Amino acid sequence: MTRFALDRRALLGGAAAGISLAFAGRVSALSPAARPKLVVLIARGAMDGLSVTPPYGDAAYVPLRGGLAVPPPGQPDGALPLGEGFGLHPALTGLHGLYGRGQLRFAPAVALPVRIRSHFEAQDVLENGAATLRRREDGWLNRAIAAAGGRPLKGLSIGAQTPLILRGDAAVSSWSPGSQVRPDDRLALRLQDLYADDPLLGPNLMRGLATETQAEASGDGSVRRNDARALGEAVARLMTGAEGADVVAVSLDGWDTHAGQKAQLQTRLTGLDQLTTGLMTALGDDWRRTLVVAATEFGRTARANGTQGTDHGTASSLLLAGGALKRGGPVGDWPTLAQGQLFEDRDLRPTLDIRSVFKGVLRDHMGIDRAALDTRVFPDSAAEAPVLAGLA
Amino acid sequence: MAASAHDAALALTRLGLGARPGEIARVAPDPRGWLTAQVRPQGAPQPPGDFPDSARRLDQLQDYRAAASRPATPPGPAAWAMPGVMPGAVDPAAEAQREARQAARRAIADDTDQAFLARARFAATTDDGFAERWALFWSNLFTVSLVKFDAGALADPFEREAIRPHVFGQFEDLALAAEQHPAMLFYLDQARSVGPDSPAGRRRSAGLNENLAREMMELHTVGVDGGYTQGDVTELARALTGWSTPNARDRDNGVTGAFLFRANVHEPGARTVMGKTYRQAGLAQGQAILRDLARNPATARRLSHRIAAHFVADDPPPALAARLERIWTRTGGDLSQVAQALIAAPEIWTPQPAKVKTPYEFVVSAHRALGVWPQRLPPLRQALIAMGQPPFSPPSPQGWPDAAGDWAGPDALVKRLDWSRAMAESARGADPVQTADQALGDRMSARTRQSVARAESRPEALALLFMSPEFQRR
């Protein structure tokens, strides 16, 4: 097998190369048909970056991972090559196709600004964008809507529950398949009277009904459970047209792979791949101005545990996909898995604050200025410069 | 009388599962007495029905696993030569195996479905709504979920065996019962965790799994600020090695019950957790640590706050949480005393409802309002999935969320409206004005009363009642 020299230097390209601006000026000033679109996929439960973008070129990978290691490209169930000693999990065939077109990049070792191994605290920080624990009760994607100014961007989350990342002052909607409510019906109108003085139920029902109207108009909203591709297509339809959503949050559960990791990841990653493929397919021309970010609250232990799984770790991978992306290598340094390099002798060491990637996306893709990002969208984050090399 | 009628409506809603027809009048003479009488040493009532206990469930799971792991006969030359069996066609042996596996899985899932339906029917009809709410609260603290198949198979016995009998006892006994139950041992991967220096660990490449240890501290007891480190998590994981469930061979060897301590996978030696060293051998070591975690002041503080947040307001009055914490500390975590303190709290008896019902509470309370119970599982399940709370399936060990923002988002309200309409259509016999009076009593606003009275049809009136702000809240 080829030995790769996967060291820190090899991967400096991403972070150091800077960013090419996608848009000059405010996004909100653009006509709906020209606005950029952003989808944030939150993999809840701590997605194992070392399986999503396996660093098969790192000599310590297989010794640490044993049977959980994804084999190098060319071997049975081997990784799909990404170059520089990294691969993509074999379930991610659709994303690998995007890679071939220069529409997929990854950050191999990102982490939150706080070191914590609680899923729930960490998901809060991932979503509220704070620099420390329990600071904010609204989400950075919601604050980004306000920071974009002008005609408000439309925010949408998928599922009955609005995730923290999209909660806040900016009005957002949510949607999931399976409703039979007709928005113009009498009962809905009567309810708006009944909710006239209710600051929670009134506005939320109204937004829900408006989104449902849109779903009805854009095609049949029926999606079979577990059909990730159809869900991706349905979401894409809610993102198109004059009333289409500009920023979307989708939660993906089930990444806490303490035992039997291989099979679980195969299923979860297949779903992630199909969802993205569905989005891409149904967005059609709009894919050109779309960016999808897949992030998780933290990574998993570098070593396999005693039950063919991994425990809570620190750094993980982040994926970027979309027609708005410009071809490029890994974003951020690779810390290596060598002895002595692991964080607390157990986890992949972070080399990049995940907020830097989010800030790069918001600045370069959504046109939000640096000052707002440093103080409002990600409070106390001025020290973490936006990074992201290359958007179309 | 008017004051106690209002208190009755509050008691039945804020601390119960909603009023059934006639219930407000029945409770009105003594709302507090109605509540305190439900605090019984034997725990919360069991939903009626004959359902498999954990030991039987483990048998069923073993049948399923056996069917799942039996290797299919590879189609050899003889099979190819058989008439009608072509390359690519179905291999009868593999097909039979697949069917056996599915049948075993279905048997388990069907029982769980029926148990959930029985629980929902019980909730829709019980006179002890507070005891049921209290039990559901503790069941959610010690979450297990159908998201993992084998844990889900034990979700119903878990509530019956580990939760309900202990919800008015000492918290540490509840914690011990929950953590040692096979549902929890499966759900948080404890059953297969092996001490690396145990006799079994030295023989094969197996090792620790720290999932249960971490959540025991973070979610079940002291909380993330409880003062423990990663080192404490790992030490507790070592102490817990050996907490397991019997397999088929253990059964053949005469093991009864659903919990088994496996001495040969227990990590030997003393353990230090949060500054205290535990020299006990075997099972007693993990139990001693768990008892200390349960008695830790951080546990009292955290869970008192959580009780107040669940029953009163997302951001609860600090005085209430502090009062519950004092009782908890003084009684060493006597949950009957904590429950009585909650009932006595003035914050319970304020008129303004601050909590949005969870989907399950909402659906149950609508059935109660109509004086009916759910007839069949599929529509009930569909409704709960749509509203974001599928049966026995919290998405993570953190359990179901508990704030208005979690349950009353745009899509969730559309789904509630959807279901309310269907429910109202199916209840054509009910008189809407009377139903509203009986369900909400003095909690009903003038606007809702008017809205229900002026609706153009009975279904419309009932749907408006279910969707009204005061019916959505408790």
Helix/strand/pairing category of chain B: mainly alpha
Helix percentage of chain B: 55-70%
In whole angstroms, how far apart are the ends of chain A? 35 Å
Runs of chain B with pLDDT <50, length 5+?
Answer: 72-89
**Number of helical stretches of at least 4 residues of chain A:** 12
Describe the biggest sheet of chain A? 8 strands, mixed
The end-to-end span of chain B amounts to: 22 Å
Strand order within the widest sheet of chain B? 1-2
Biggest interface reads:
A-B, 57 and 60 residues
How many DSSP E strands of chain A? 10
Number of helices of chain B: 27
Largest sheet of chain B: 2 strands, antiparallel
Descriptive account of the structure:
The complex is a heterodimer of chains A (392) and B (474). Chain A is 31% helix and 13% strand. With 392 residues, chain A is α/β, with parallel strands linked by helices. In chain A, β2 and β3 form a beta hairpin. The two termini of chain A are 35 Å apart. Chain B has 474 residues and is mostly helical. In chain B, the strands form two sheets. In chain B, strands 1-2 form a two-stranded antiparallel ribbon. Chain B has a two-stranded antiparallel ribbon with strand order 3-4. In chain B, β3 and β4 (276-278) form a beta hairpin. Chain B starts with a helix and ends with a helix.
